[in-house]
Amino acid sequence: APMPDDYSKVLVDPPKLCYTAREPDAPKMRTATKRDYIDREARDASLGQAGEEFVVHYERWRLISGGYDRLANKVEHVAKTQGDGLGFDVLSFDITGKERLIEVKTTSFGKETPFFITKNEVDLSRSEADHFHLYRLFDFRKEPHLFSFRGTVDNHCHLDPITFHARFS
After folding, report:
1. pLDDT digit string (tens) for 81-109?
2. How many CB atoms within 10 Å of residue 94?
3. For the chain, N or C: smaller number of CB within 10 Å?
């Protein structure tokens, strides 16, 4: 994970959600491509973990720079200590001690690059809207920046279902 000298230069404003009319989707052209899914998954996992570690450092810096060392010491990388599946990656706190459940999404591309989010993460953003924060890291490999938003993901992003869970019973 990159370690900037000054974390204060990392935070930027999030993109605005646009409600413009869209043309109907054109029929999809199916083309064959060869992908190395194992390599792709390994790279994505490595990037994701590096982003989560970056956010742990950022959160500790944010709290310490505000004089909240005690809270900074309680920041936890729950995806690492407890595992995936909680719907968030990092447990942090605001200055009153209220929990921040932070889901981290990392890309080495630009600010408005789409990202994948699980049903579990979206559901948590709805049920814990007062505590849920999504941190979006972008340009991660070159010059990392992040923006964040609090609350339900639906209020900040257009959600398109692209995969289905298929079962027989």
Report:
1. 999 999 999 999 999 999 999 999 999 99
2. 16
3. C
Give the chain's radius of gyration (CA, Å): 17
Quote the pTM value. 0.84
Rounded to whole angstroms, the Cα distance separating 117 from 110 reads: 17
Stated as kind and residue range, the H or E segment containing 45 is: helix 37-65
Query: Which pair of tokens denotes residue 20?
Result: 């413009």
Cα–Cα nearest to 45, from 90, 80, 75, 14: 80
Whether 136 and 115 have beta carbons less than 8 Å apart is answered as yes
Torsion sign over Cα 88, 111, 151, 125: negative
Q: Which of 107, 30, 103, 98 has the alpha carbon at shortest distance from 63?
A: 98
Kindly report the number of other CB atoms within 10 A of residue 108's CB atom. Answer: 16
Beta strands per DSSP E along the chain: 90-93, 99-106, 132-138, 145-150
